[in-house]
Structures are given as structure tokens and as C-alpha cells.
Write a structure and sequence with these properties.
This is Trifunctional enzyme subunit beta, mitochondrial. Keywords: Acetylation, Acyltransferase, Endoplasmic reticulum, Fatty acid metabolism, Lipid metabolism, Membrane, Mitochondrion, Mitochondrion inner membrane, Mitochondrion outer membrane, Transferase, Transit peptide. InterPro entries: Thiolase, Thiolase-like, Thiolase_acyl_enz_int_AS, Thiolase_AS, Thiolase_C, Thiolase_CS, Thiolase_N. Residues 53-323 form the Thiolase N-terminal domain. The chain is of the alpha/beta class. It has two domains: 53-170 and 217-469, Thiolase/Chalcone synthase (Peroxisomal Thiolase, Chain A, domain 1, 3-Layer(aba) Sandwich); 180-209, no CATH class. It is built from 16 helices and 13 strands. It has helices at 2-9, 17-28, 75-90, 114-121, 139-152, 176-187, 191-199, 222-232, 237-256, 285-288, 322-327, 353-365, 382-392, 395-401, 422-425, 432-447, and strands at 53-60, 64-65, 99-103, 130-133, 158-165, 266-267, 273-274, 311-321, 334-343, 374-377, 451-458, 462-469, 484-485. β11 (451-458) and β12 form a beta hairpin. α1 (2-9) packs parallel to α8, α3 (75-90) packs across α4 (114-121) and α12 (353-365) crosses α13 (382-392). The longest helix has 20 residues, at 237-256. 52% of the residues are buried.
Length: 486
């Protein structure tokens, strides 16, 4: 398929000037960073007989590059901090929560159900059920929609969803042969049996199995897939670096303006208190252009500068039925409306989840691309984002691969990830989804929009898209943010 894509998409009718202008337009459009604006009401997405489900609040620990300040912790420590931060910020009694669900990707074997361990550590009752889900980079998206399902079905009124990833200490295994030898040795009953088994161990058995961000079905790393996707869609190295620079610059502006209000301060035991993401580093095209390709060498275009970095972090959101939120005096941030999950070829279309998910969720909600005021897309790689934008703006791709009569269109860059994205803020695999939804709600509130569209790709060739709606959210003010500590 890659050769077909290269032929059909490399010259697809996407306005090439937008790449040059996108940074300038977004960086000079600062009015959206100012005072909160009342939304202009469009149509309602409420459905008769269906519960309104609301996002009351969302928080996250600072997202830090792996191997830095969080390096001596464990995943449940970060998840616990996020849960405690949510409790502190909302003031919700722990006993009012009916269920807790968390997403994660690379599990720590000692705390395989990290939702349960984090909940107990955060002081929740042992009577509150908790479970962990995994769906690659959309794991916390799955956690949130699981919460929506629990509430919509009447099983719960109040659910905490979240996600966590800890890349500073990933599991490293012995080789399979060594594991089998060790298990057999453990079962041996006599010294003779043990010595015989030890004699069979060869030096090659001692080579460890290191984890890799690779597809099991294709054995290809996601970086290689991103490089091939960028090549197929004709996305240049310069375009990718320009987009990555845009992400870092906008993230820095948002941070300096105090707009990243979902970030909670976290006192790391034995170390300093952290209150900011540490991966936001605006550079220059000249500096970025000096980096060598990270995956396809020597001619690839994906580098460390235009890829999201390995990140430690956790997030948590409070999701409730609207009726329950009102009864408890909360001012919800947004309604969580329609959502879809999509899946496609994990080899040639691994990272095209947003392209497939966006038109489906728009059709499901009865909206068009023009109705959306805020776009929050996961930025795994700059090349991945730009390939999606080109695919979304291609009639040929829609007709050839999606069975659609016409393209859905590319989002306006003035509405797209204007507070930065995963390239700059960081991407703890299991935690990013909650950040996307919370940021979409905050941007809508700040800019006076009504509808936000969240979309993300994930390993396995999967994806997610959701509509966030802030219409008529006019209740009492939420509790002020406070610091939280372990």
C-alpha cells in the first residue's frame, strides 16, 4: 500500500502554503489566550432518554521526560498523586466515588491492576471497585468511555477515570530459555537434578529481552511506521520540524499564560516539588535540522526533535451524571458526547486513527468539521499528524481506502492544538487521553466555543475520537486548585 499512497497522496491537493503559515498564524493569534468567553450556543447534542454525562474536573501530574525526577518512583505512585490531586481540587468525598478505572500500557508486574493499588494508596475505601484497561496510546480514552458506559447504564453516578505510564523503569525479562530453565530449577527436588539443570544453561540464555515500542504483528517500531507514513504522504523533514517547533512554542506560551491549569504540583518523596512539564523546549529550525534520523537511516525524516519523547506521568478525571453533579453543587466543565473507536491496517495505516475516527464521530453527532471550535489531536510524531491532515483533506484517500464519497477536510490550524501537544507536553502512553479531553474543555471555556473534537491514534492500527460539548454549563464555581503531595 505504501507505494500506492506515495503515488496518490504525495501530490494530493493540500495547500502547501499552510505548512509555512501554520506557525505564524497560530503564534500570532493570541486572543484565545485571554479572558474566558461565553460560548455561542449552537444546537444541543443531548438525546431524549439518554443521561447527560459530564466532565467535572481533570488533573495531571507534570509530564516529565523519563529518567528524570520521577525515576525512583513506581507507576502507582504517580497514579496515586493524580487521584489525590483530583480529590484536593474538587473536594469530592472519597466515599462519593462509585468506581475507578485507569489505563496503562507497559504494566508493572507487581501492581498489574494499578487502578486498585493507586486507589487504595490514595485513601479510597477498599469497598470501591477499580480495574485497569489497556489500549495502547488511547488507554485513558478507553478508561473514560468505560466510565461513560457505567454511568449511562445506571450502574454508577460518579466514576474517576485516568491513566498512567512510567517509562523510567520498564520490565526487562530474562530470555525465554532462561525463564524455562529457572522455572524447572525451582521445581527440582534433589541436588543432582538442580546441578543437571544448571549444566544446561548456556551463556546465550543470559541475554535479556528488552521492551520495544513495536508492533507484535509486524515487528516494526512505531517510529519506522511514522517514517514510512510521512514518506507515503510526501511530508518533508522541514514540514515535520516546523510543526514540532509550533507545538513547543505554543506549549510555552500556554504555560507562561497559566493556561495549563490541569497540572498539579507534586512533592516527589526525597526530591523537589515539581509543578511544570519538563519537555517544553522551543528551539529553532536550524538546531532541529542538525539531528540525524532516529529510525530509517540515513534518509529518514523522523528525528528525536519531531517525535514525542518517552514520558512519565499520570492523569485523572472526575466523570459524573449531570444530575449527580448538580445535586453535589459542581460546575461541570463539559458534556462528554458521542465517541467512536476505529481500527485499520496496522502496517501501512498504523497511525491514521484520527483520519478514520473524525468523519465517523461527526456523522454520529450530526456535526460537520465547520461546527468544531477546538481540535485536540494526539501528536505521536509530527509526520503522523501531518499525514493525517493530508489524508483528511484528500478525496482520493477517502474514496480509495475509506469507502467515502468525499473527504472530511483538514481542521483549521487556528483551532488545532493551540496550547501545544504531545510533541512538547509529553506523552505518557496511558495518560494522554485524559489530557486531551481536559484541554479541549479548558480551551472551549476560554475561547467561547461549544464543540471540541478529540482524536488519537494507537498501536495496533486503532484510534479514538470524541465530541466534547460545553453548552449550557452554567452552574456553581468549582473548588480552587491546591497543591497535593504523596
Amino acid at each position: 500500500m505504501a507505494s500506492i499512497l506515495t503515488h496518490g497522496i504525495r501530490n494530493c491537493p493540500v495547500n502547501s502554503a499552510w505548512v509555512v503559515k501554520l506557525a505564524a498564524r497560530s503564534l500570532t493569534t493570541t486572543s484565545h489566550l485571554q479572558a474566558q468567553v461565553q460560548p455561542k450556543t449552537k444546537k444541543t447534542l443531548a438525546k431524549p432518554g439518554v443521561k447527560n454525562i459530564v466532565l467535572v474536573e481533570g488533573v495531571r501530574t507534570p509530564f516529565l521526560q523519563s529518567g528524570t525526577t520521577y525515576s525512583d518512583l513506581m507507576p502507582h505512585d504517580l497514579a496515586r498523586a493524580a487521584l489525590q490531586g483530583l480529590i484536593t481540587k474538587t473536594g469530592i468525598p472519597r466515599t462519593a466515588v462509585d468506581y475507578i478505572v485507569y489505563g496503562t500500557v507497559i504494566q508493572e508486574v507487581k501492581t498489574s491492576n494499578v487502578a486498585r493499588e493507586a486507589a487504595l494508596g490514595a485513601g479510597f475505601s477498599d469497598r470501591i471497585p477499580a480495574h485497569t484497561v489497556t489500549m495502547a496510546c488511547i488507554s485513558s480514552n478507553q478508561a473514560m468511555t468505560t466510565a461513560v458506559g457505567l454511568i449511562a447504564s445506571g450502574q454508577c453516578d460518579t466514576v474517576v477515570a485516568g491513566g498512567v505510564e512510567f517509562m523510567s523503569d520498564v520490565p526487562i525479562r530474562h530470555s525465554r530459555k532462561m525463564r524455562k530453565a529457572m522455572l524447572s530449577l525451582n521445581k527440582a527436588k534433589t541436588m543432582g537434578q538442580k546441578l543437571a539443570l544448571l549444566g544446561k544453561i548456556r551463556p546465550s540464555y543470559l541475554a535479556p529481552e528488552l521492551p520495544a515500542v513495536a508492533e507484535f504483528s509486524t515487528s516494526e517500531t512505531m517510529g519506522h511506521s511514522a517514517d514510512r507514513l510521512a514518506a507515503a504522504f510526501g511530508v518533508s523533514r522541514w514540514e515535520q520540524d516546523e510543526f514540532a517547533l509550533r507545538s513547543h512554542t505554543l506549549a510555552k506560551k500556554a504555560e507562561d499564560a497559566g493556561l495549563l491549569s490541569d497540572v498539579i504540583s507534586f512533592k516527589v518523596p526525597g526530591r523537589e516539588t515539581v509543578s511544570k512539564d519538563n519537555g517544553i523546549r522551543p528551539s529553532s529550525i536550524e538546531q532541529m535540522s542538525k539531528l540525524k534520523p532516529a529510525f530509517v537511516k540515513p534518509h529518514g525524516t523522523v528525528t528525536a526533535a519531531n517525535s514525542s519523547f518517552l514520558t512519565d506521568g499520570a492523569s485523572a478525571v472526575l466523570i459524573m451524571s449531570e444530575e449527580k453533579a448538580l445535586a453535589m453543587g459542581y460546575k461541570p466543565k463539559a458534556y462528554l458526547r458521542d465517541f467512536v473507536y476505529v481500527s485499520q491496517d496496522p502496517k501501512d495505516q498504523l497511525l491514521l486513527g484520527p483520519t478514520y475516527g473524525t468523519p465517523k464521530v461527526l456523522e454520529k453527532s450530526g456535526l460537520t468539521l465547520a461546527d468544531i471550535d477546538v481540535f485536540e489531536f494526539h501528536e505521536a510524531f509530527a509526520g503522523q499528524i501531518m499525514a493525517n491532515l493530508k489524508a483528511m483533506d484528500s478525496d482520493w484517500f477517502a474514496q480509495t481506502y475509506m469507502g467515502r464519497k468525499s473527504k472530511v477536510g483538514a481542521p483549521s490550524m487556528e483551532k488545532f492544538n493551540t496550547w501545544g501537544g504531545s510533541l512538547s507536553l509529553g506523552h505518557p502512553f496511558g495518560a494522554t487521553g485524559c489530557r486531551l479531553v481536559t484541554t479541549a474543555a479548558h480551551r472551549l471555556m476560554k475561547e467561547g466555543g461549544q464543540y471540541g473534537l478529540v482524536a488519537a491514534c494507537a498501536a495496533g492500527g486503532q484510534g479514538h475520537a470524541m465530541i466534547v460539548d460545553v453548552m449550557q454549563v452554567q452552574l456553581t464555581s468549582p473548588v480552587e486548585s491546591k497543591h497535593c503531595e504523596l
